[in-house]
Structure formats: C-alpha cells, structure tokens
User: Fold these one by one.
Assistant:
Number 1:
Amino acid sequence: MRKLATCLLLLSAAATPAWAQLRLTITEGVTDPIPIAVVPFSRAVPADGGLDVAEVIQRDLESTGRFKAMARNDMVFKPTTAAEVDSPGWKQQRVDYVVVGRVSAQADGQVRIDAELVNVLTGQRISGPYSVVAASKLRNGAHRVADVLYEKIIGVKGAFATRIAYVSVDGKPPAQRYELYVADADGANRVRILESRLPIMSPAWSPDGEWSAYVSFERRVSAIFVQHRQSGKKTMVSARAGINGAPSYSPDGKKLAITLSGSNGNLDIYLLELATNQLTRLTDDPGIDTEAVVARDGTVYFTSDRSGAPQIYRVTPGSTERPKRVTFTGNYNARPRISPDGKQLAMLTQAEGAYRIAIQDLANGAVQVLSKGRQEESPSFAPNGAMLIFAGRERGQGVLQTVSVDGQISARLDADAGEVREPVWGPFLP
Amino acid sequence: MTMKNLVSISALLASLTLLAGCPAKKPDVPPPPPTPTSDTTGVEDPNATVGDTDASMGPSGELLSKRIVYFEFDRADITADSQTVVNAHAAYLAKNPAQKVRLEGHADERGSREYNIGLGERRGQAVRRALALQGVAETQLTTVSYGEERPAAAGSDEQAYGANRRVEIVYLK
C-alpha cells in the first residue's frame, strides 16, 4: 500500500544564486521511505559561494520519494567524516543511513566535494563518492554526489545531475508568448533558449546533451531547428512545404526522425541525416503518421491512425516489412517513448475517458496506467529509466509531473507563472 | 477515397439545403470565438512574417465575413452549416483568381500535440479540397496546421473545444 506523503520541497533561495522557477512537491511516495540523515558538510572554502551542498543532496534524495531525511535540528552530533559516525547512536534515532562530507578547495582553484555513506545497521562505511568541479558548478557537483549515493543505496544510478527542457506559455489566447527553457532536473538554473509569439513545440535532446531540436512556427509555418546549447547557434534543418514536425534524435545523434506532410497534407515519417540533409522515407500511408522515436536498436516507433484511431507502430529502417502495430489496449495510444534499456514503451493513452500516461512491457504487451489526471501528455524517460516526466494540468494550468515507472511515486513541478508543458528529460552528462 | 466522398456528399447536401432556403441553425453550434484572431490583433509580432494579412482583408457580406469553419470532435468533414460558408468563399475566390487565402487548421487541446497537428492539417486539407472542387485554383490555396498550439478560446470545456476545432480562412494581401 501507498500513502500520500505531502512533503513540500521548496528550492530555497540559499541553495542557488541562479533562481529556480519550478517548485517540486511529492504527491505520492512509498509507504516506508528509507530514513536517512544528511549531515551538513564541513566547508573550508570561500569559493563555495555559500552553497549548502548537503542540502542539495538531501533534497535530491527526498525528491525521489524513496527517502525521509532527518531534520538538522534533531541531529545530536554533526560528524563530517565516516570515522566520527557513532552508528549505534544514529540507529537509536531510527536512521538507516548517514551521509557526511566535506567541501574543500583544490590547489588549482577547483572545489572538491567528499562524501561518505555509513550504513548504521551494519556499520559499513562506503567512502568514495566525490566530485571535483569549478566553483561555479558546485551545485552540479552536489547532484553528481547524490547520483552515486542514490546508486549505493537503491542500486540504480540517480539522475539528479541531468537537465530537462520544456516549453512555457504565457498570456491568454490568442495573444500568447512561447518560450523554450533548459533547466536542471530539479528545476534550478533555468535558461531560456528561445522565445516567440508563435508556437514553439516538440523539444528534443541530442544524445550528448549538447543540442536541442524543436519545432518553431516563427515563420508562420512549421520548421525544425537544431540549436547548440552553449553557443546558442541555431540552424533551420527542415522547412519543407507542409508540416515539419516531431523531431527526435537517433541514438548516434547523426539523424533526426521527423514528420513531413508535403503540400498534400499527408503526414509520414522520415529520417533526416543532419550532415548531408539527406531524407529517407520510412512510412507511406494516407493516415497520420507522426511522433517517431528511434530506439537504441535502430527500430523506429511512431503514432499512426492508419487503423482509424491513433496507435503505436514499429518499423525497421532498411527493411521491406510493413510497419507492425504494437499497442492493442484501448482506442487511443500516441506519443511513444522507449526506455533506455529498450524494454518498455511509455505513451499517452485514453483511460476512463481521460488522457493518461501508460507504460507497456514490450516483451509481453502488459500495459499499466501510471498517472491519474484528466489531461496528461508528453511522457519522457529519465536517463536512468526509473522515472518519467510528463505534462499534466492543475487548476487549468499546465504543470510538469514525474512518476516512477512502477507508478508508486509521483511528484509535481509547479511553475511560478504561466503554463509549462512538453518536458523532455536530457541524457546523462559526461 | 472516403474523405473525397464525404466532402462531395456534404457539398451536395449543402447545395440542396441552400436550394431549400436558409439552413436552420443548429442549437449546438459552437459559439464564435472572440474576434479578431491572433493574425489581426495588431499585437507586435517580431518573429512573424508580418504584413501579409489584415482584419479588413477580403470580401464582406453575411457569409463571406464568416471566416471560420468549425468541426466535430475528431472529425475533418465539413458540416452542412459550415458548407454554406465554404461555398460562399469558393464562389468569391473562383471569381477572383488573383486572391490567395491561407487555410489555418486547428484542433482542441485533448490528446497528443503532434497528432493534433495532423488533425488540424486534415481539416485544412478538407477545406482546401472543398474549395478546389468548386473551381478555386490550387495556386490560390495554402494550408498550415497549428494543432492545439493557437487556441481561439481558453478553457477545458466543450464550449472552448468547439471554438478551437476550426479552420480559419485567412485572406492574404
């Protein structure tokens, strides 16, 4: 059984100078979250800019819904090395794990975070996660330490040191303003990479996290652009007659799967080779074929209403076989995304008259509806495959939500203003 | 093709209705959205290729001043009511072969965004075919689909959905 854990994690101003505009709330957590104490780290650096590294790590772990952190006021001792951790004492306080650590300056001016994990039940000390970063990237260093701590305890690498992209919309129809943002996975450090008075949609990440692809109507008609994250350099890669839509990078980053309609309005799937601008047509059907995604094995999954209503199909580029239908549960399945291990399909499905996020086991076809809202869309896997981020609605406004792939843990990322939609989770960064 | 048949049948039905006199107004016709549309609000639009449209562009008249064709949920066939509007524009455009229009297709907000781009396009194409059937040259017509991205009305109710499932006939300079 699950219970409703209402744990409001405000991204406090002290945590980051670059201000976070998204607020995370765990709406549903596990019944027995793991009790953990993240003790404030010793800080021997003025270069740390006042960032409370332990707080960032604690919030990362709590944001997964799998941990319950001890309040600092309840800590009798505040050790900073594993050797100083008195396991029996912490055990009495019903803590399973203690995280301690130190932030120090290196000779080269970089900052080093050392963290140690103590399993107070066994007394086992796991020293090791550490991170060396430029002082300006200390927050990212803290996320990287949290990634490793999460893996040591849960067994799956954390996805805290990753980014998300999403579209934000302000204003009332018909005078709306569209913006494309990239932010840390916790919503902090958001950067606006594009704005327009005409729609921006369908952002996608390159596999190395350096590029974003998206659809912009800034020329009144749709066109697909790719934009370099660091330099902001933007290139229009497809502005053919009719629809240019639904870009998605191939796993090698060299191609985009896209939707084109031509002037006769028939939407089909193509692969666009970015270096040569060469197009390969993958589908040819009078129905709507769109929202293609290339799985790691090269198979392309897409939405098609060739059978009368949208369903997910799969096609192998270079093969002469006709596309095969993949979804058979329900009358509406769209917007496929494939898990990093290639075993699961996430999609938008119609269930109980509502549009919800579902996951299908590709081996046995079993479908589980993960979300509970009325109008949800745009599922995207975290790079560790443990969670999905998607768009939902709260009091008529678009909000971002996450759900664990087992459906047990849900969270909401509220925006300060306006509507946020179409979240896409970026890759692990080197 | 089914779509073609549907269009021809509804065109035929509409002509019959026209012959029979003024079509009775259906009680559940979606209300007109607030006008003018985003093309014509005069809101500064630094990114757009501005200047190709204007609210005062195009012909006036009871039917010709109606520039919006509404659709049923998940449908792209032109209803008998809308057909009279389409017919009026078809007659005008056939007589004025230099006049170009852009058919802007839209969907309501339910379902997947890129799939809705497809639905909006299907509606735009239905109007394009209906106009072409009545003698409008293909060179006078372009289509664009905005899917659910440019709603005419805010809200998540049937009224807003009905106002948003539409094709706007935009007269170009």
Number 2:
Amino acid sequence: MSDEPPGIIQRFRATIRHSIAARLLTIAGISVFGLMLMGWIAHAQFNGRLLRLLIDPEIESVADDLIGNAGPGLNDDLILRDLPYDPRYLQPLSGRYFQIALIREDGRLETQTISPSLVDAEISLPGNVQREMLAARAGDGAHYFSIDGPDGGDLRIVARVESIPDVQGRYLFVVGVATREILETAGTLVAWAFAVFVTFCALMVAGVSALQIRIGLGPLHELQRDIAAVRRGDADRLEGDYPAEIQPVTEELNALVDHNREVVERARRHVGNLAHALKTPIAVLKNAAAGGGEDAVLKQSIDEMEGFVERQLRRARVAARADASAGSTIAYRTPVLQNLEDLVFMMEQKYDATKAMDISIEAEGDVTFRGEREDLLEMAANLIDNACKYGTSQVIVRLLPSFESKGLFEIVVEDDGPGLSDEEIAKAMQRGARLDEAAPGQGLGLSILQETVELYAGQLIFERAQLGGLKARLLLPATD
Amino acid sequence: MRVLVVEDDKNLREQLASALTDAGYTVDSAADGEEGQFLGETEPYDLAILDLGLPKVDGLTVLKAWRKDGKNMPVLILSARDRWSEKVEGLDLGANDYVTKPFHMAELLARVRANVRRQTDHQSSVLEVGDLRLNSATGQVTVNGAPIKLTAYQYKVLDYLMHHAGRIVSRTELTEKIYSQDHERDSNTIEVFIGILRRKVGANRIITEKGLGYRLIDPAEAQ
C-alpha cells in the first residue's frame, strides 16, 4: 500500500502540514472562492432586483397612463383617447407591449385593444395569471408577473383590473416589457463590474496573504537567527523582543537552553569530581605497582589512566573557562612579571630533585595581561614545563612588550633541548594540532594550551631557539 | 628524622608511611586536618607531608595555622588539584614543595630528602658573608636584607659554600655533600646550580677557580 504514489490530496495535505505559507495561501484561496460564490449568488439576486428596479416603475407608469387615457367609445365600449408617449409601444415587436381585455360575465377575457407593437399577436396570459386576475376586483392595484412573451423571450408584465367610468364591465390592463435585452446589457455591465471587483479582491487577498507571510512570519525568521546565535555561542539566551504569540515558545526555548547548560555544567562537575577522586586511588595503585614486581602492563595501564584523568580535567577547565568568558565581559587585569617569577620558582622546585634546570627570566619591565591569572599561569606553566622537560639544563623566559602588533605582549620560552624539526614545528603550529593525542600523558599538552590561547585571541608560535631547542612565543592581549 | 604524614586516604597514608619508614624516617600519620594540625603544632618534625583535601580542616588552613604558630619545618604539599595557580598559592602560604597526585614514590622520596631539615640545622645558626645572610633555623636567605627564594638543592649548595666561605670547594666535594643519599649525579648539575645561585645572589660572590672548584667570597672585601 505504501508503495503507491501519494494522491494529490495527500500531497496537498503534506504541503499544508509542512508550510505555514501554504496554510495561509490556502485560507486566502478559500476566502477568494467564497467571495466569488457570494458574488455569483448576489448576481443572480441582482437580476430579479434589476427587473423591479428598472422595469416595474416603467410599466406601472405606462399602465397608469393607459388607464387614465381609457374612456367610453361610441358603442359604450372602451377606447384609448391617447397612446403612451413612448414610441416603442407603437413599433412592431419592439419588446414593449400593452393589451386591454374585457372581463366577461362568464369569466373569460375578451381582448379589446392591443398595442401596435404587438402587430396581430397577443400576450397570452398563463392560467395562473388569469385565475389570479379574474379573482381580483377593480382598483386592487398592480400585480406583477414574469411570463413568456409573444416573441418567445421573457416578458415582465404588470396587470391591473380596473373599471372605467362610463364604460360597462371591468377591464384587464396588461403592460409588458421584454426583459432579455435590458437584462443582458445591464447583466454584462454588472458582470464586468463584478469580475473587476472579484479580481481586485483576489489580488488584495493574495497581497495581504503575501504580506502576512512576510510580516506575520517575520518573527519566526528572527527567532531562527537568534536560536542559531545561541547554538554558535554568540548569545546566551533568546533576548529579542518577540510578539506575544511567539513569547511562550521563546520562553520554553530559553528554559530548555538553561536546562541544557545546567545539565552540561553538572556533567562537567561530575567528570571533574570523578577525575579528582580517581587521583588518590591511582596514586595508591602506582605505588603498589612500583613496590611489587615489575609488571609493565599494570604500570602502563596506570599511566594511561593518569593521562586520561589529566586530559579530562584540563578539558573541563578550558570548557568552563570558555563558558565563563563567553558570558561575561569583565575585564581582568593580571600583572605578568610577578606571576612568571612565582611560576619559575615553582618549576625550579619541581625539577630540583631530578634535574638541575637554570630557568632565568629576562624582562625589561612589567606588563598587565588582560585576562585571568589562572589562565596566564596555566599557559605559561605549560610552556615552561615543556621547556624544562625537554631542555638539557637551561631555559630562558623572556617578557616582551610586543611592538609589532599593538595591544599584545609576548612571553618567549626557550630551551636548550633537542627541539623540534621544521616539520614538527609546522605541525604543532596548525590550529588545533594534536601532537600529544597519540601518547596519553606524554607530549606537549598543546591542544589544550591552544584552546586557552584562542580564547584570548592570542597566538602561539614555535620557532627554533638560539639555545638550540624549541622557542615558544606566546602572544597575549595586554591592557592599555 | 621525624616526618609527619597528613593524608585522609588510608591506603595512600599507609603506603607513604611504609615507604618513608623503609627510607629510614620516623613517621607519624594523621587522617584529618584537625589531628594533623595538632601533631604539627605539638611535635618537632623535620618535614611534613600535607594533603590539601582533608576532612575537618583543609590543608591550606593547617599550613597557615602552623606558619602563624611559628612552625617552620619544611612542608611538602600533596594534592590532587594540579592548577598552577593553586600551587603558587600554596607556596605563597609557606609550603616548600608541591607534589601532585598521582606521583611516583621515588620522586616523592627524592623531594622529601631534598627538603628535610638536617639535624645540624636545628641549632639556630646564622651564616653571614658580607651582606649575604643565611638563617638555617628559618631557611631564609637574604641579600642586603632582601629575601631570596631558593629551592632545597640550591639552598644546600649555598649553605655548603657559605660554611666554607673563602675556601675552594671542588665540584666532586659539592656533589658528594649535596647528593650524599642520591644516586650518581652528573657533576654538570653543580655547574647549573652555581649558575642559578650566581644569578640569584650576585655573580661576583661565587668565583670559579679553574680546574679546582668554586669559592664564595664577600665582593666588598675583595676590592
């Protein structure tokens, strides 16, 4: 069954379901269709009204005229002293006729006078008209009917039963107008007017729909842009001023965003706590493994665990930092030289027992880092630690206010170790380089360092050091 | 030599205690900050190993209390937290060294050895060569009144040179004295230490006697 191609209705339904514009257009189409239907009904109604409006007064007045002009003839019969003014009642088959008939005692009609326009034809009254009129009394007033005319077309007639003074009996006066011509002309005119009107309305509805889609759905596009901004991390929440109809959606979305952030935050905290909690047992395992036999597999596993824990913690830290700095624009000011000196002493201590490292600081003056102390320490420590790890006995840390690019200062860390090859340097300089991913717990820890540097729109450059080893240049924003 | 271990994890505490005992130290251990602080305040120790994440009273508070109380035994901080800013903070509070978990026991023992105060240092002695001053009771070194930060080995080298001020001390002699309990060390490391010390206390105070060794002098006197 499902193989069958979807019918047109299903496809239409699908379109409607998937497009608000299609929905609005459908509603507009239905409105236009309804409008046309109503117009058509009005048009039909209009014909009837047009008869009463255009024809009835005329034939009424002609009938009045005839009755006024009727008088006794020579034989006490009825004659017309004058004919209607309208010459069309005289022209043969002009479409305007009258007929005067005597109502005999036996209830039959005896035609007395016909309009010249009828030539020798007669208006034949249908049975129901005859019955109604025979039942009428003189002076009853006008009765209107639509009947078949002598020329085959529709005939609108007025019929009156009157007694004429000095004339015996009652007479039936009938005046008729063939409606076809009149209605056709008027109908065409009205049809045109109607067509123009409906077209105009349809265009209006289409235009309004288009505007509705554009203006009415505008906030949805705005919403989409704002959501994209949140996803990219450019904005924290949906802060735009939305219409009342969308407000509930944005509120829900904001709640969702907050909830997600909270979940991520909680997960990150869990990971952090877990990683920290693992460190002590790992230390115990490590010592236990070192104490017993030389189990290389065990030792390697412990080292790997240690590496993972380390990596996870650094990641969590960088992510937390990125979050914090995305949300706030608080300007931090961190003096650099004192922190570098503290750091260098830390490093001297770290390598004191295992390796004599001469770490010297060369600084012309102090600068102030526009950022957090913790980040400065992490970044600088990473570079100095690497330099100490790979250096032979000497590391130089230089603090330079950079002249090349304004607003940046430079921390240069050089060592006298084996350094990196040009290839390795190129690789390390690549954005997001993962020199250290291969061996957990080994390597330079560069990717995490890079992330922090990028956070501050800083730069990390590797070169060959004059001492022979690696020279790392860390460019960071300084305060003005 | 007495060492105090303050660590809440039972396994690690026992490992530390047994490793230190094996290395010839007398070990007291405490499982929480309160007990650790009390022991440190009441007993004379040559070194304390202090975990930071402790129940009842945290490690940094214990350290602060000790220093405030005038207890200046070397303190080696042991912590799972490895942010550099935290390490720097610990050192600012008066810790002498910082070891991050997980660690190699051998490395920890080496650091303990480097930091542990020698018996002789208990005699409150102040060495002075010109305006270079070394207080072995507090471990403080000053040049013209300004304090100099030295690591344990740097301190040992300077201490030895000052004890033998004006005399030529050979590299071998220094290596033997400084690394008496350690494995074979590259004599090159002495050169590095001399370089560091020259930078920290003034290059003209330590003279290289070619082929013989080093001599610490008072530059004001030499002129």
Number 3:
Amino acid sequence: MKLFRYLLVIFFLINFNLLNAQDEDLERKIIKNLRCLVCQGQSIYDSDSEFANSLKILVKKKLEDGKNEKQIYDYLKNKYGEWILYDPKFNKNTYFLWLLPILIFIIGGAIVFKIFIMRKN
Amino acid sequence: MKIKIFPVFLFIIFFIIFVIFYKGLQNSNIYIPNINTEKNIPIFEAKTFIGNKKINSKDIFRSDKYYLMNIWSSWCVPCKEEHPFLINLSKQKNIEIIGLNYKDNNKNAKIFLNELSNPYNLIFLDNNGTIAIEWGAYGVPESFLIHKNKIIKKIIGPINKDSLLEIKELIQ
C-alpha cells in the first residue's frame, strides 16, 4: 500500500512536469537558453536590453521561417560563439566544466567511503 | 615510515582545483565575442535611410573595394565621440563607409547628421535591431572593416585614434 502511494506521488510529479513543458512553447524555451551579452548573467528571456529585444524578434522570425531549435542555436553560435548558449556542449574548452562535478562527487564519495570503513574497523 | 597516500592524494587534488579557480579569478568575466576571425559578410535586405528604398546587400559590397560598416544611432553618446574619426576616414579614397542606423528615430538621426556632417556613402535602416544581429553585433557603436566580401576587422565600441590608424594601415 505504501509503495502504491509513493508510485502515485511520482506519477503526479512526472505529469506535472510534462504539463509545464507543454505550456512553454518552443520560442520561450529557446530564448531562455540564450545568454544576453549586454547584461551578462541574464538570459534573453529575462533581459530587457536593446540586444535582448532584437534577439527575441529574430528568434521569432527564424521560427516563422521554419528553422528548428538546433538551427537557431547553430546560427547564433556562429555569430557570437558558444558562450551565447546556457547549455554549453562538451568540447575541449568545456570538458573541465562538465567533468568537475563528477570529479568532486567521486572524491566526496571516496572520503565518505573511507570514513565509513574506518568507523567499521 | 608508511606514507598515507590518501590524504596526500586528496591534498593534491584540492590544490589543483584551488590553483585553477584562483587563476580563473584573474580572468575578466565579461565575455567579448571573438573579433579576430575572418567571416563572410551576411546577406541581408534593408531599407535605405534616404529614399526608403529596399536594397540587397549583395548589390552594395563589391569585392575590389574596402568598406567600413558602422552601426550607429543618434541616441548613442559614444557614436558622437567616434564621429570625427569617421569624417576623417571618409576623406580616404579607397574606402566607403556604410552606416547602419540602429533602432533610431528618423528625425533625430537626420538632425545628428546635419549637426556633425555625414561621413556615410550609404545608410541602411535597422529599426528592430535584427540586421545588427546578422552582423554579430550586440551594441552600438560597432564597426566592421570589409574586403573581398569578408570581415577583416571588427571594432567593438567607438573608433578612436588607434583604431583609425590601424584601419588606415590595413587599407593601404
């Protein structure tokens, strides 16, 4: 019975997320993943700078022209570099960024494991 | 004496991480797009400032000439600062200056040019800022030196004495 209840909660959580994802249209999703180069640290979606407003218009125009998400990202990456994307791809400049959390996780795990073994002994 | 490998290993790892982050502190956290890459100029259609005629960029840029594409606006203060340098550059025979009037009020732009004089051979209108994005710009003023349909130099911010000299040397 308990297990059933847990499953029910998980089921609702998953559905809730799906509902949110469906609400967000593609345009919003794209501009949320683009970084404003004028007010750095804000996304294009959050920013109200001239650059951000122009980029919002451009993304809309590109979608109307039938371009897909990846094509728009590639287009902007070509103009401004990888930095414009909030979701940087794995390459020689970003491997440290991607691997560091895993590295810290392994080291942390090792410390915990070591302490655990020591206590047991 | 038995050396404990684990604490030493841990110390080394954290030391490496510390050094990387410490070095990272000294880097500027303001990102500037790469300005040294040669890129083909974008193809776009825009209306002209005078006459309001639709023109394709292909009909403007010839491959045997140097062009300076300058993004400007009457509300932009640094544009006023760079204007004398543009006037100076417009006296050179082998370069044409093309203006891109960025998100401007037509009346104010005309007053701006009447007051400070007009260095541009041609001016395009960019009312919603999308053409500036085609050029990879993110603010005003920005300038692009073009030769053989390629951007050979990009200047972010106003043109100054040094960049003017550099442009003059490049177009010799």
